[in-house]
Design brief:
single chain, 288 residues, alpha/beta, eight-stranded mixed beta sheet, two-stranded antiparallel sheet, 7 helices, 22% strand
Length: 288
């Protein structure tokens, strides 16, 4: 039975999943990204012109909402896709996985309304910032749903989305976005991120899952970052899977392939163990 449960969790995490009868709705929803906070210089110049300072306008974002059966309130998880966008199998797999654990799931599609095909050739700071605003918009959207517990919402992401998750978990000296008081993510899970984008001190408990042989977002980068932070800030657990490559949790990549110059390949053992790590982490951090 344990092997069957593990196999179910693996196939539902990121790829090649054929949905069965489920309480998940996978409903297309739209919400606004969070508004950027205007800097002090821009505020002063606006006042000198006799204008009211205003933040950059929000962007309309699409997402896919799923919930467990019942009225809640449930904890929730925001999911951020990788650099190649959000596939149907990916979003449905995440929805099935999270709702089976008792969480509301919101898979954010940051590329659809922006007309972006992929962002795999380089890390674009402006897009990373924009995707943070998307995630915070998703947080605000979920916080106002009657069946969601606004104090128990986690952020998860894979690859490019994992980088964004680490940015959101980081501490910042200034507020970048206009967020209502009390609205914040409670925990973060990042699959194969570039750890060095994060500040040394994180503000929320974080789980990082990465392959030893990842040549896109190297595990050594995460090890060096962990050493430099020296235990400061919120607790962080880094798990490195021996012999695993980038995208080790994607069953569609069983044969492995060269993608934008990097080797990506599914690893059943790493995928199984990573899903259990995430399950246990979220169960602890999103407990009442």
């Amino acid at each position: 039975m344990r092997a069957q449960v593990i196999a179910f969790l693996v196939v539902t995490i990121l790829g090649s999943f054929a949905p069965q009868a489920t309480v998940s709705a996978d409903e297309l929803v739209k919400f606004n990204s969070a508004v950027y906070v205007v800097g002090k210089l821009q505020q002063r110049l606006a006042r000198e012109r006799g204008e009211m300072p205003a933040g950059a306008p929000p962007t309309a974002i699409e997402g896919y909402l799923s919930k467990p059966d019942g009225s809640g309130p449930f904890p929730a998880v925001v999911y951020l896709h990788g650099c190649d966008g959000l596939s149907e199998s990916e979003r449905k797999g995440i929805a099935e996985l999270m709702t089976s654990w008792g969480y509301v799931s919101l898979a954010v599609n940051s590329f659809a309304t922006r007309g972006i095909k992929d962002a795999c050739t380089q890390v674009m700071p402006a897009l990373i910032l924009a995707r943070q605003s998307d995630a915070l918009g998703a947080l605000s959207y979920l916080s106002n749903l009657p069946f969601v517990d606004p104090q128990r919402i986690a952020i998860t992401g894979a690859s490019h989305g994992g980088i964004v998750a680490l940015e959101l978990a980081s501490t910042h000296s200034v507020d970048l976005f206009a967020i209502p008081d009390g609205q914040k993510f409670k925990a973060a899970v990042a699959y194969y991120p570039l750890c060095s984008v994060a500040t040394q001190t994180l503000s929320i408990p974080t789980l990082i899952l990465i392959g030893e042989l990842d040549d896109w977002t190297p595990s050594k980068n995460c090890e060096q970052w962990m050493a430099s932070r020296a235990g400061k800030g919120a607790p962080v657990k880094l798990v490195i899977y021996p012999g695993a490559y980038h995208a080790f949790a994607a069953p569609a990549l069983r044969e492995g392939m060269r993608y934008f110059g990097h080797w990506i390949k599914y690893d059943a053992d790493a995928a199984q163990r990573s899903v259990l790590e995430m399950h246990n982490f979220l169960a602890t951090e999103l407990a009442r």
